[in-house]
């Protein structure tokens, strides 16, 4: 896995300098533009094309807060492909209540109850977003041991948020179906 932060000569950060990201992207776009290597060997052209592709991907990931969060968790070994992460039982019980309410609303539509459920999910979602913001903001100033603890907490919030996105989709479908 290419380390996009190293590629851009930036420290790993959940809140990197946006201007520096843009500056590096433009500088490397110029440096690795395939047109400048038209008279080079096929190997050199392929290498430049690869570096140009990495530059584009790095910019996409590092300039998007959600992609960046996922990427850092992957980079730091917190997310693994096909991982079956176990969310806390208390969270799952709360989500089970929300899912049951959504199922009830499918059979017995009630705009007031749906609005109330949406507001309830908004509050949970905002709480997760606030917790993620606190942890990611503090991350840069922490020592390595504390960063490791923060990453575990951020990973948990990441999976909670992912779960909530599925519920949000169900709510949006229910809202659209009215």
Description:
- It holds the Pfam family HSCB_C.
- Residues 3-75 form the J domain.
- Belongs to the HscB family.
- This is Molecular chaperone HscB.
- This protein has 178 residues and is an all-alpha fold.
- The protein folds into two domains: 4-75, Helix Hairpins, CATH 1.10.287.110; 89-176, Methane Monooxygenase Hydroxylase, Chain G, domain 1.
- The chain is 74% helix and 0% strand.
- It is built from seven helices and no strands.
- Helix 5 packs antiparallel against helix 6 (111-139) and helix 6 (111-139) packs antiparallel against helix 7 (144-176).
- It starts with a helix and ends with a helix.
Main β-sheet description: none
If you compute it from the alpha carbons, what radius of gyration comes out, rounded to the nearest whole angstrom?
A: 21 Å
User: Treating each run of at least 4 consecutive H or I residues as one helix, how many helices?
Assistant: 7
Proportion in helices: over 70%
CATH architecture of the largest domain: Up-down Bundle
**N to C succession of SSEs:** HHHHHHH
How much of the sequence lies in strands comes to: under 5%
Q: CATH topology of the largest domain, anyone?
A: Methane Monooxygenase Hydroxylase, Chain G, domain 1
What is the CA-CA span between the terminal residues? 45 Å
Strand segment tally: 0
**How many separate domains make up the residues?**
2
Oligomeric grouping of the chains: single chain
Shape annotation? elongated
The level 1 CATH classification of the largest domain is Mainly Alpha
- Overall average pLDDT: 94
Low-confidence stretches: none
Q: What class, by secondary structure content? A: mainly alpha
Domain J: 3-75
Function: Co-chaperone involved in the maturation of iron-sulfur cluster-containing proteins. Seems to help targeting proteins to be folded toward HscA.
Protein name: Molecular chaperone HscB
InterPro entries: DnaJ_domain, HscB, HscB_C_sf, HscB_oligo_C, J_dom_sf
